[in-house]
Amino acid sequence: AQKVTQAQTEISVVEKEDVTLDCVYETRDTTYYLFWYKQPPSGELVFLIRRNSFDEQNEISGRYSWNFQKSTSSFNFTITASQVVDSAVYFCALSDRNTGKLIFGQGTTLQVKP
Amino acid sequence: EPEVTQTPSHQVTQMGQEVILRCVPISNHLYFYWYRQILGQKVEFLVSFYNNEISEKSEIFDDQFSVERPDGSNFTLKIRSTKLEDSAMYFCASSPSQDTYEQYFGPGTRLTVT
Q1: 3-class SS at B77?
Q2: What's the pLDDT tens digit per position in B66-83?
């Protein structure tokens, strides 16, 4: 069965600290995509990144970086020099190869204090 | 930039009433999805729709739920007889193809059943 686990329910950091959000997934598919979404207090889902299972290169986008390791089935997300505006719930998700539906993790609530 | 729109943004209804949640997917997209997020919980897949029929539905999507694409633009989710536990945020998503696994989410409709 496909599953996404975000073991960290809540994380609290002080502004300018680096923070890593963990994501572990389970799938039997050989081809799949992994995603991260941000959900600010306003409620919408903001797409952050999509990663193909064949591409294990780490990615950096500004203060955001992602570490994909197939050997450990993990797709972790790091925010460098966190800011108050980063406060949100972050969801990791896995695609289903047959239907394209997304399977979400439980989410990690990140609070960045000034 | 094209986007998925949803109406209404917030719907309040009494238990037992029928509600229709509306979505306008991106115009050239072919795959459509509904997801549900109960307050404070993860985003859960409800149903996927392609070529005017349901391609997959979850256990949550029981007989009280239905989806329809009544014209070339709208994609609706109907709940026939709402229950208190249907209170949630409902997200619509669309995708240009299944292979890209690139889903665009609408802003959501918050349904409150009293």
Answers
A1: strand
A2: 999 988 789 999 999 999
